[in-house]
Queue: 4 jobs
Job 1
Amino acid sequence: MNPLLATLGGKLTERWLNLLVLPGALFLAATAVGTTLGHRHWHDVGRLRSSLDDLAAHPALDRTGTAVLLAALVLLAATAASLAAQFLGSAIERYWLRFGRDPLSRALTARRVRKWKERDAKVDEAVGHAHQTGAGPNGAVMIRSSTLARIQALTEARDRVALREPARPTWYGDRMQATADRVEAAYGVDLAALWPRLWLILPEPAVRQVQSAHDSFSAAARLAAWAGAYALLACWWWPAAPAAIGCAAVARSRARTGLDALAGLIEAAVDVHGRELAARVGLIPPEAPGLLAHDTGDGMSEVFRKAE
């Protein structure tokens, strides 16, 4: 038991340091430097060194108790800053996945719809032109590689807006909405009602992969929160602005990658384990062959919604 407790304690300490202390301590250090130097003396290392020497020469720091108390306060402040970033990251995560019910969100959704339709029209135009110019004998169509590359580039540009016509104000919300729409179109099941039940029967490897993708998305949201914190610090010390921009760019890239993986894993889980769930709730016999039927998916939605 003692080795187990020691191992768990070591892992918890490592997690506490990596997730709470180190990011918060880095931000506190940047804040101390920024407030000391300001915009005018942003690169004055001598000024920073003098401030550190004055602080080190303070009589109170000669006492061991005071030094220990100061170190504890720094750790607490770093932890508090990281906890605040986690709280803000959770809010950002919900904001990214929100529905477009308020006027601003509806306006953003309408703007994204117009942008998506413009790019979709270009894709249709390119495909139509390729069929016209590549028409051969006996109805065969010969499309040049350069034309295919152009169609692929236009398709990727459209998909960067959304995989389907946008229904939410952000790409993240639309990516999850596309997964729900694809599942409903294929199986007739409401993903929001299905997923909590499906999660209970997923095997451990699938659970780990889904959790890992979700953790990546949550970590990106926390990084976006740190980007906001450094942007605020840039009001007093402009070198914090590049750090804010870098954090925001990395957060955006990681959030897209993480959410795209999460959406794909959720859809794959329905494909692989949807029939198993239907059999467990008694809608189909366990030995029934074939894919999950549309009427079975409708029955699952009705059962899981509790006739709401």
Job 2
Amino acid sequence: MSKLPEKHKFVDLSDYGRPIAKVIASSLMNTTFTPIHVTIGFIISGLIAVFFIIQGYYWLAAFFLILKSVLDAADGELARIKQKPSYTGRYFDSIADIILNALIFISIWYITDTSIWICLLAFLGLQLQGTLYNFYYVILRNKFAGDTTSRVFENITPIGLKGEKQIHVNILFGLYKMLYGPFDKTIYALDRNAEKGRVLPNWLMTSVSTLGLGFQLLIIAAMLVSGLKAIILPFFLAYTAMVFVFIGIRKSFF
């Protein structure tokens, strides 16, 4: 099941790993592997990337960052083709992402002379960027019968779907709210009428997709292998300005 109908599909620059992810998911469709297993796989890949960043093996780090991005798409694909969506998987995926993002940024701070404050602000900016991308994307998916495990407003603990335990949903949702709540509230405060606005055109969603985690990891990988490790954190801090640019465009025209 595609996330969006054909008319509203856009070139998602953050989703470059989707073709390979579909192959991986298809190969696992008739196995006992679950989406959670694939999520654990991308956690392992992300941790290996962190290790190689610290050790200075930047090509290997780049490979595992991209692999992490591919597997991050594959767990959702597997859930769709097995027709087993779950809130457990949705929140586990997001919690793993934010923890890995923090570890990646800490490892980059460790190998450079960047201020710890720039590292912290860059991390907050990274998460704010991803939150805006997800916010606009989930609005589109909700409007056009996309998957229902992602919600525009994550305020109330959802009722677990068939096959998952409510206690797991409760715990993971609580962790999700603690980690992502401040970013969700910030983006909502900045653009509280986004859901009521016109459907965002494909060109704008493609532009906003540069804020997505997959594209962020691609930029980090490219900078590592290009000898630009020292500017990775300052770049993401500065690129946070695009959050306000895109919100300004949305408010002015859509």
Job 3
Amino acid sequence: MPDIKRNFLTLVAEESSEPLRGIASPARVRILKLLRVRGPLNVNEISDALDLPQSTIATHIQVLERSGLIETETLKASKGQQKVCSIRYDEIIIRFDDQDALKSKDHVEVSMPIGLYTSCDVSAPCGLCSTENVLGVLDVPDFFLDPNRMSASLIWFRRGFVEYKFPNNGKVLGAKIDKLEFVMELSSEVPGTSLDWPSEISLWVNNVKVGSWISPSDFGDKRGVYTPQWWKLEGSQYGKLVTWQISRSGTSVNDVQISDVSLDKLELEKHHGIRLKIGIDDAASHPGGINIFGRGFGNYDQDIVMRMHLKQQLGS
């Protein structure tokens, strides 16, 4: 299964007038959607596809360029030159947080539903389910791209990873990040169930492997506190609540240091987003699969939580 990557842009409403102007026009939204579906196009091709005058398209392209939502490149054409346009982002998120209230806090917390991964590469046995039913077809990795994955409350696979993109609130607030935490409910994955089934589960942040944690079991001995009654008892029922903490001195799991990978190695200040990848490394000594439990499954009624501890804030 290919590694599908998506580019996201997070806008703070009161500080993003140019990008917001870029998407304020229905015609410009149509241009963005066209470029997203068709790929790079020149002005003439956009004009023909949308049945709008070239002069109108050229004006809208100028606005989209200034807003930073598209990239343009001037190339040779059969007669003269042509401007080729390409979209920069697959999805735009507009934040309406109270920025003054956020700046007064010493930490920011973001909860990410487990089905909102932006990239994946998994192998069977694998599957997804919501709190109501199985999503798609079991053991078919391609179904991990199905739009219904957004409602997933349990994800499992033997090898590979899923990747999420969180907003870098520290960069948005102009604050220095002192510590970064990710909290999630995890277990091993085995066909059927086994209380003795270790699995080495790894975490990457911005493509840097911060460390691994050994899950001892698939925890299929009893139904999870929130696991729905329809879920079969022969499979994983719950997991351990695992807290990954990356600080200036290294990385720990549940307060036990596991590596010397520190915040400085993640170069968070250079990125508008924080990419979190969770899965089974190809070089894992115990590749025993993974279950990721979300809200409505397992023993903890929560999604994947990112907690960002801020040290120095804007205006301090």
Job 4
Amino acid sequence: MSESSKSAAAEAQELERSYKLAEIVRQRQRTLEVLSLKSGERVLDVGCGVGFLTHGMALKVGEAGQIIGIDKNPEMISHAQKRCESLRQTGFHVGDAAQLPAKNETVDAVSCTQVLLYVNDVSKVLSEMMRVLKPGGRIVIVETDWRGVVLNSTDDDLTKQIFSSWDSAVPSPNLPVHLRTLLKKHGFSKIQVEAVPILNTEYSPSNFSHGMMEWITKNAEKQGVFNKTQRKVFLADLEERGRSDSYFFCVNRFLFSAKK
């Protein structure tokens, strides 16, 4: 297996783990509530990952409907297909968010969770969503404001540098503050925004921030914020705060909904 294949497989496995966490389950439930899917509807799940949301949406639209999951990572698609193998109303494509596999005005709804920050041209993706949606069709987009993280740590300056390093790791950091304007520019209406906070006061593998801090500090190490030894010291401090009941982490995700 090539290094890129190993990386794709590891990414899919990590998503399997994190999407079962209580905080992400609540986010997914809220996404389904806002989508308000009906029997027989046709939906695109852009950046479907390992298929948790796809599965939930398929149950909502029933066998008369159709859910199409799209992801650029073939390993994600493999996991999603397995998860939804008993649901005939699901189909999956390895593909690009900027080239959606649907004809003009043939889709009732589009979902897109934690995808657009990785996209080089967000406007092109939004144009594609507008193209495939039927008149009156709706979208739901979930993105995170990593610049707004609150973390109780020994070194506040280092913490800021760790999260700031994310800006150079993705094409579209700090996207939530710009997304409402972009949606209006592309002709979407009835735009609503709500916060979906992720709050942890324990540092344990059973909560979101434990895995996230492993991941974000690895990125910071790659970006030269600190070395491997310093990273271990930083994470050890978080472990100690967890043991002493002084750990505190909060970040906001934002759920955008709109109509064509």
